Amino acid sequence: MADQKSAVLDVIVVGAGFAGLYLLYRLRTLGFRTLVIEAADGVGGTWYWNRYPGARCDVESMAYSYSFSETLEQDWVWTERYAAQPEILAYANHVTDRFGLREHIRFNTRVASACYSSTNDLWTLASDQGLTFDARFVVMALGCLSAPHRPEIPGLGEFAGECYHTGYWPHQEVDFRGKTVGVIGTGSSAVQAVPLIAEQAKHLHVFQRTPNFSIPAWNGPLDKDNERYWKENYPTLRAQSKRTSSGILNMDSDHCAAEMSPEEQQKELERRWQHGGLIMWNAFQDLMTDAASNELAASFVRRKIREKVKDRKTADLLCPENHPLGSKRLCVDSGYYETFNRENVSLIDIRCDPIETITALGLRTGHQSYDLDVLVLATGFDAMTGPMLKIDIRGRAGARISEKWSDGPRTYLGLAMAEFPNLFIVTGPGSPSVLSNVLLAIEQHVDWISDCLCYMRSTGFDIIEASRKAEDDWVRHVNDVASPTLYTHSDSWYMGANIPGKPRAFMPYVGGAANYRDFCDEVSDQDYAGFTMSKSAATGHENTVVSPKGPTSTDSQTSRQPRSNPAS
Questions:
Q1: CATH of 9-43+101-147+383-559, one of 3.30.420.10, 3.40.50.1010, 3.50.50.60, 3.40.50.1820
Q2: Which of 564, 568, 547, 462 is nearest to 257 (CA)?
């Protein structure tokens, strides 16, 4: 498409994933001159890059979809209970073309910097190719898991075989037949990829530092009766989802573990196991706040693992013992544990025998060398903050986001920041994001941002900025809600613990998606309490400043009790 430098845009959106696509649709429908800038050559965001074998959503297909178009809801047909990456990407492309969005997306353009000028109250974005774009507002729709983490293992660059990262998988199919493969990591990506790689590989070595809890998906063709039920009741089901802790139906529990008999506890755990998926995360109302309640569920899952894995030593290694269930991302699998019963699969405990170096021929631990043809890095992401920090973002008076977030992320509602006027974030730190149905979280943020821009247009304001007090109060509230939970009891990527040198701070909001939605609605209903709005002199307006009433008080925030833990 043509260079956009000549015209000042109303809004630039960075990222053409599900958030960027909906933003583009919504803002253009509302009459805002909007451009999306995307580093890839296609749409889809996470589902564009993560093409590894077995890549699949852990939220059921009928719920992991847009709600803004009734005809889209009715017309699109999912084929599986949990959609695989190719089908999700096809859905993203269908939406893009159905609503004529592609012509407003600039592909193959990576944003390197974004700088705000108080002289003209504009944001200038520069690409890594030297192109520049000006806009009054910027929305970062980068996704929470879009900055793959490549570990600093000695010798990694010396490996002579094929090397892939699950977060940057090639577009062409990777052939593992007849090859010895090593997979480093046992998080969600590995849990999905390992069973399929094992089916092809001559031999597969899985290098595990920390075992993770995984629940069977019981995936299969989408039940037609279930599809029909959803399509007949979408408005009701969407509304019900919004009032849950996670945006996922049938997940919340009404009882604490201690309120149930041992028989009732086990019956409920078995029911959730047989249903499959993320609902195990909320088996009891107090599962993420009470260690004894959590241990009931954790022990149940460990028993299931030992029933699946024939070798006792291997089963013990696969059973998490050092973190509460759900404090690290709960995985959803299709035959992961059973894969370790195959003769061509071995599990290597690198906590006891750490990796020393990668060699040209493979990998060496302290006690053994492994010759490999293929190395797969399933080493996760610099989650939530990583995508933002990869861009040189400078706000008012040159304030750098890298400095602002040096001790952990600071936002107001996960949507905006003090010192960074006219900059919004979709599913940013301090919002439920990865602890909820992300599609529902995306739609809520996009609708809130769009409504805010319409409010500013109708009132004649050009500039909006979160106040320092509102930001401080929200960060305090996010921490206060998280601190009594078990989420903070493990070295998870929620805490930034997977990235060397990253400040330890719990990043998502654990108070529940429904509570969070209420907070956001309360802010907008009070004429955007906690934000300062002004008229830009650069547009010919008088420089009038309006400071709405401060944010919802800390007392009222902290008095609102979090619902039982959200899902991912």
A1: 3.50.50.60
A2: 564
